[in-house]
Amino acid sequence: MVEKLFTVAYYIFVAALTALGLLLVAALFPIDGNIQIKIVKSGSMEPTIRTGSIVIVKPETSYAKGDIVTFGPDTKKDVPITHRITEIKGTGASVRFVTKGDANEDADMKEIARSAVIGKVLFSIPYLGYVIDFARKPVGFLLLIIVPACIVIVDEALAIWKELRGGKQKTEIHEA
Questions:
Q1: Residue 46 and residue 48: Cα distance in Å, rounded?
Q2: What is the mean pLDDT of residues 146-174?
Q3: What is the bridge-based pairing of β-strands 81-89 and 96-100?
Q4: Could you report the per-residue pLDDT of 1-29, keeping only the tens digit for each?
Q5: Helices and strands in the chain: count of H runs, count of E runs
Q6: What's the pTM?
Q7: CA 135 to chain CA mean position, Å
Q8: 128-136 and 2-28 helices cross at what angle (nearest 10)?
Q9: Using one digit for the tens of pLDDT, what is the confidence trace for 25-53?
């Protein structure tokens, strides 16, 4: 019974490790025009989206009042902002959005051009951004990805070695 629980826990661990690795890769290498993962670094959208959450963002052809969107540059120095559209001004190519964080009293001072919008927030996962942000750092990558991956590899190698060794013993018994 304990061995079954250990096996289930092991496979859950491997699945979580794989999911974290895939999320890290998706967050590190976003592809324009596709779904992207962004980390929320401020509390301006609380309680709807908490600080440290990840948001799954998808570009849309049009946006409506009330949509939560992520916009702005995404560089080492600049972090994109996730706010709600409160007003739409203009039409066509000259459309601009007035945005506001749910926790903010006032709307953002600067209107957002359509071209600055990365996409609409599909959903968010609280606190996972802290883990991904930690995994982006060398120590975090080592502790969250490399060490567990090595444990899995060593465990699988030992299982294969035991299986091969067990097969060799069976062959010796049959020959005797």
A1: 5
A2: 77
A3: antiparallel
A4: 777 887 888 888 778 877 777 776 766 66
A5: 4, 7
A6: 0.70
A7: 11
A8: 70
A9: 766 666 666 788 899 999 999 999 999 99
Q: Provide the token pair at 128.
A: 């996972």
Nearest to 59 by CA among 34, 29, 89: 34
Cβ neighbour number for residue 153 with a 10 Å cutoff: 10
Distance separating alpha carbons of residues 176 and 166, to the nearest angstrom? 16
Residue 88 identity (one-letter amino acid) = I
Token pair in block for residue 2 = 């304990």
- Could you give the CA distance from residue 75 to residue 126 in angstroms, rounded to a whole number? 22
Residue matched to tokens 């301006």 = 44
Examine residue 47 and say whether the peptide bond preceding it is cis (omega within 30 degrees of 0).
Answer: yes
Query: Are 172 and 47 spatial neighbours (Cβ–Cβ below 8 Å)?
Result: no
Report the candidate in 151, 150, 140, 152 with the shortest Cα–Cα distance to residue 28.
140
CB-CB contact of 56 with 37 (8 Å): yes
Q: Which amino acid is at 171?
A: T
